[in-house]
Amino acid sequence: MPSTKIYRSSSSSTSHSQWSYHVFLSFRGEDTRRSFTDHLSSALIRCNIKTFRDAEELPKGGEIKPELLQAIEESRVSIIVFSKTYADSKWCLEELVKIMSCKKERKQKVIPIFYHVDPSQVRNQSFAHHEENADEEEKEKIKSWKTAMREAGNLAGYDVKVDSYESEIIHDIIEEIHGTIPIVLDVDENIVGMDSHLERLISALEIQSNDGVRMVGVCGLGGIGKTTIITALYNIISNQFRSISFLTNVREESTKDSGLVKLQQQLLDDTLGGKGQLTLKNIHEGVKVIKDKLSSKRVLIFLDDIDNLRQLEHLVGKHAWFGPGSRVVITTRRKDLLTAHRVDYMYEVDILNDDEALQLFCCYAFEQLPKKDYRDLSIHVVRYAAGLPLALKVLGSLFRARSLPDWKSELKKLKNMPNMDIVNVLKLNYDGLDDQQKCIFLDIACYFKGNDVQRVTRILDGSKFNAESGINALVDRCLISISKNMIEMHDLLIQMGREIVDKECTEPGEKQIMEI
């Protein structure tokens, strides 16, 4: 499968697939089940940290011991709550031995909590009551218990004394865990051409610098792969931050009832490490709380699919809202929004080259290189998609496991009727245009691709269009580009534009575009 060296190295080094749980909690029930451990467990769950606690995760009737040991093996972090009678329980001691073994063999992180006991008591724990009448086999076990207690007692952890503020300690524990187990987002395994995108963005973010705040915008045509790129980026860099928020589908979510307030709420819940700590009444309060709470905090924020300036103003209004070293990544189809928001770096995603496009298409159509009889047809499909990743994925899935006659029939159909799954994504930008901008877009789609921009401007001005403003709006929305003074438009946008004209204009006299 094609992938990228950057992305593969990141995912393999953290070995996320081996962990079923983020945290395993080891504790003596009669000491802390209804007090500290209950409060800690509840806080972990509120923060979306998947936690194995006692036998509640085990199926009824299961053999608890082997399944419990397996749960320890499959946890990224083990938290041991040492209490006064922890070592009285053989069950707890067996858990501890397994935990310390996983620390050595599986690089599991171990966090000891000394609850109303001193670390020296743990290191020098007496086992007299276990040693009494112990046979040789039991004596060997006791040796392993002593070793595990001594090693765990030497680890850096948290002291919970009688007069400690437990809520503050629990907050610190969760902060440490967040730094250990950043959530890994699902990314399409068929990643093609990703290396160059990630290298450019990682360089632009300057993560190693804590001198200030940087905002980076990622723009491009719908279906170009912006979300996939920043998701892969998140998986690589998120482990360098403790306060992280990834807001998806901002355009869609902000149109819902109180949508922007809910997005502000999610941003705060994510970065402050808990849900329900703050309840916002309106967007103005949200702005104030974000500035107050995050201005001294180093955060990593992703805003995916922004489509108006108001969203940026109320979620990441200014650099000063966030602490030194913070980074904000924004995706949008509109370059003008990034310019207006004064991002520090703008990265425009380009279409795939021919080799990358064929590679991506084949991942979906064949899961390998194209079959010999299908290669020429595959090249025709790739040319039709013109390097747009969304189109290559949709068409690859459409053609998968189909016969040669079916391929030829579908290709013929595509030339006359575009695939609606592709059109619906591309049309979002068109729908956001005003009436005059739509007319200019349709004119270019039908007649002016490859024409000199000055010539097209003069012609459209003669039709009482504000041509320069309209053309700039199309450039800002990534619907056209200007290269060497020539207007360029993606082939699928041209097909979509002509389809719109055919549907909206039933008689030749109704067409608003001009025959040149």
Strands, count: 12
Order of strands, widest sheet: 2-1-3-4-5
Strand content: 5-15%
Runs with pLDDT <50, length 5+? 1-17, 57-64, 507-516
Q: Helices and strands: which structural class?
A: alpha/beta
Range of helix content: 40-55%
Q: How many angstroms separate the termini?
A: 48 Å
Biggest sheet features: 5 strands, parallel
Shape: elongated
Arithmetic mean pLDDT: 87
Q: Compute the CA-based radius of gyration.
A: 29 Å
> Count of helices?
25
How would you explain this protein's 3D organization?
By secondary structure, this protein is an alpha/beta fold. The protein has helices at 5-14, 29-32, 36-46, 64-73, 90-105, 119-123, 128-131, 136-153, 166-180, 194-205, 226-237, 250-254, 259-272, 283-294, 309-315, 335-340, 354-365, 375-385, 389-399, 404-416, 420-431, 435-448, 453-461, 467-476, 491-504; strands spanning 21-27, 51-53, 75-82, 109-115, 158-160, 214-219, 243-247, 299-306, 327-332, 345-348, 481-483, 486-488. Helix 10 (194-205) crosses helix 11 (226-237), helix 18 runs parallel beside helix 20 and helix 22 (435-448) crosses helix 24.
